[in-house]
Amino acid sequence: MARVQLNEVSRVWNSAGIRTVGLKPLSLDIADGEFIVLLGPSGCGKTTTMRIVAGLEESSAGEVWIGDRCVNSLEPKDRDVAMVFQSYGLYPNMTVRENIAFPLKIRGTPRADIEPAVARAAAMVELNDLLDRKPKALSGGQRQRVALARAIVRKPAVFLMDEPLSNLDAKLRVSMRSHIKHLHHTLKTTTIYVTHDQIEAMTLADRVVVMSKAEIQQIGTPQQIYNDPANTFVASFVGSPAMNLIEGELLAGVFRCNGIEIAGFDAVRDGRVLLGVRPEDVAVQAAATRDVDSQRYVLVNADVFTCELTGDATLVVCDVRGQRITAKADKNVRYEIGDKVGLGFSAIHSFLFDAVTQDRIRK
Ligand SMILES: Nc1ncnc2c1ncn2[C@@H]1O[C@H](COP(=O)(O)OP(=O)(O)O)[C@@H](O)[C@H]1O
Ligand SMILES: [Mg+2]
């Protein structure tokens, strides 16, 4: 196990006169035993970061430390890391047992030690009954568990996992997610996990590193990322459905946009802002009952655009004078398209962002 540090690590490609910035200088300090998730959309630099840590990609500048060694000049095999990829990378002609044993075999582990080590790793991912099969006789989830067992058996200082669940169907993803979380609890190996899936990030991570456009947007616990987003990118990338963002004017502590008026932002300077409200913080009520008991709470009239039952909740998507606002309501709530409703929200359960910089404005 080991602490992992990235100090101002960057990557630029120059080919045919075109300069591509894959990664702007990035610094990250990962504690021994921590589960870190790099989260962001496709192309934001997650895999590049991971490959630089693994030694599969050279950084243009900066240092990578694993434990008390700067590993910049070390080959991937000497870095004591084990990678698990989206494409499982199993040897098709070997059985599950041989696949899992392979890293130990090439390391020259005595034969007598290999068998119990393989059995232990296989047990951790519930593969004991499949050891004599070839990969082609396994489901996607089982193949990915073989890849996990092959990583486990090496007892590396660091696990690197790049979208390991992306090839699996939704149900398997959820069950494999539990496997990985339980495994980390058991082994406590420092893990860097890459995904574009915010639910995976929120459920697995000790800390989430949200990335966009080749740089870090925010680092924090899942709670911090969700409850205290640093900018509109983080606010809208994490959370489903996405946070409502309403552009308007802030004047003397009052937010205004097309007749929507919310007071209670007294300490904030005037200017163009985006008001962010999570769908679960928007209340859907009957349009007629205007029951405003606090100056900080507003109720606006809206037309139902669509009403979608997701099973455990109902998403009521509304039009408020040309602005689309989504509310997450109880699963028993039901509206027809075109129904008149009232949407209630308050300054307390909202966020403010600078309309120009997109950065959070603290209330
Ligand atoms: N070998 C390469 N040459 C040029 N550009 C690359 C190379 N590898 C990756 N990139 C670019 O770097 C950026 C980050 O890629 P990547 O780290 O794979 O993103 P992610 O894993 O977040 O989807 C992308 O714009 C990608 O096109
Ligand atoms: Mg990638």
Radius of gyration: 25 Å
Return residue spans where pLDDT drops below 50 for at least 5 consecutive residues: none
Mean model confidence by pLDDT: 93
How does the helix and strand content classify structurally? Answer: alpha+beta
**Bulk shape:** globular
* Major pleated sheet: 6 strands, mixed
Number of domains: 2
What is the second-level CATH architecture of the largest domain? 3-Layer(aba) Sandwich
CATH topology of the largest domain: Rossmann fold
Spatially, the strands of the biggest sheet line up as: 6-7-8-3-9-10
Small molecules bound in the structure, each named once: adenosine-5'-diphosphate, magnesium ion
SSE ordering: EEEHEEEHHHEHEHEEHHEEEEEEEEEEE
Beta-strand content: 35-45%
Number of strands: 21
What is the CATH level 1 assignment of the largest domain?
Alpha Beta
CATH superfamily (homologous) name of the largest domain: P-loop containing nucleotide triphosphate hydrolases
Give me the number of helical elements: 8
Cα end-to-end separation: 41 Å
User: Which percent range fits the helix content?
Assistant: 10-25%
